[in-house]
Amino acid sequence: MNDRSPVPDLMPDLVPDLIGDSGRGNEAAILRAALRLYAERGFNGASMRDIARAAGTSLSNLYNYFPSKARLLAELLNRANALLSAQVSSAVHTAGEGVAEQLGAAVRAYVSFVADYQTAMLIALSEVRHLEGEERTQVVAERDRNQEIFEDLVAAGAASGVFTTPYPQDAARSILAMCSTIATWYHPEGRLTKQDLCDQHARYALALLEGRVDGR
Amino acid sequence: MNDRSPVPDLMPDLVPDLIGDSGRGNEAAILRAALRLYAERGFNGASMRDIARAAGTSLSNLYNYFPSKARLLAELLNRANALLSAQVSSAVHTAGEGVAEQLGAAVRAYVSFVADYQTAMLIALSEVRHLEGEERTQVVAERDRNQEIFEDLVAAGAASGVFTTPYPQDAARSILAMCSTIATWYHPEGRLTKQDLCDQHARYALALLEGRVDGR
DNA sequence: CCGACAAGAACGAACGTTCATGCGTAGACG
DNA sequence: CGTCTACGCATGAACGTTCGTTCTTGTCGG
């Protein structure tokens, strides 16, 4: 377990856009505007008029792309959660065989995602409650799927004795809590680089699990 | 450092009310209603009419007690933050001399507060952004004052070699992040008791700091 | 000519706040 | 002691604004 293995994506300009360009010109602009405004003012604090203005289109035209305000939020959260789970599980699969290595890779991928898609993560943290019914269950299911990746890793490490914490069942949740809230204070121009964040939290996670790096 | 030292308050019914009873009958009811609704639906999602109804009074009468919706939120956050800081620093002062003991006591007090005043903590986490000007700076200052307690403890422990983490400057923030978000998932009737939570997170914090319990 | 995209006007509802009014009571005053 | 007054508490109505959504109309390329 080397402590400064490079994070997958070191060039901020090369970070793939969460929204991309689907050919439909305004769709991306609307999603981007909604992402920013939901994060800045919260779901109820950002009006459809605000979003339309920020996207450079008209209020009524929003409804040619998304049937409701809630559906627009759900669309954003689904994209973010799906990409997050994909990046984390991909990092785990390309990591070495050791559970400690895999958990370190998972934490790095997670932290890296939080830094890259900070606004999306902010929304995912605090705006899910404004969804109901199908929209909500879908988003929550994807979020839980991601948490399970970490829970399984921790359980495996505890079973094999690599993690000696007496609370393996709950440690994964604490690790994710620690990493998620990075979105609430991270500044790309601040003292800590993205690489610093990944290094720190990978080490935090292993320490919290009271891991034995030797592997046995 | 005993791992199961009792948390200050074990009887839920004896937890002092955050709001209390100031003689003014409706004031407490209004604050309690606002606390619950702000936590359930967010600041912008809970209307003054909702709060009045939940408090059992009329809409216009709210303004005989609080001059604005934002001031009502600020009042709640000030009370919560002040009580939190008081309980944490009190716990530190009554703990033993060792830095590790003191940090453990601080974490226990913090977690205990989160469990006791869960709704208040939920609001403090996500609704501060809706405050502006004086109201905001006041709340943020009190929140930072509490964070400094932890930062100072960690710095002292790192300087004396009790905490061997290579990132002492940032570990305190991660510990608080971990403990704060308990408010988002804790259920008093769930598998984990308040005592469990305190034990776990005190241990997490020390492990995260890579503490040497022997003290040197 | 049909469907995707666009815009303005309008809808009813809900928002935070203010106003006008009234009741009860504690304190000042002759 | 009696009375006036001022203030705290309470209410329903109303103000102007903004909300999410829909309607109507129109353009334009395949």
TrEMBL record, chains A, B:
Q: Which residues bind DNA?
A: 47-66
What keyword terms does UniProt attach to this protein? DNA-binding
Q: Which InterPro entries match?
A: Homeodomain-like_sf, HTH-type_TetR-like_transc_reg, HTH_TetR, KstR2_TetR_C, Tet_transcr_reg_TetR-rel_C_sf
Q: Report domain HTH tetR-type positions.
A: 24-84
Q: Does the keyword Transmembrane apply?
A: no
The protein's matches in PANTHER family, at most eight in alphabetical order, are given as: HTH-TYPE TRANSCRIPTIONAL REGULATOR RUTR, TRANSCRIPTIONAL REPRESSOR MCE3R
Task: Provide the protein name.
Answer: TetR/AcrR family transcriptional regulator
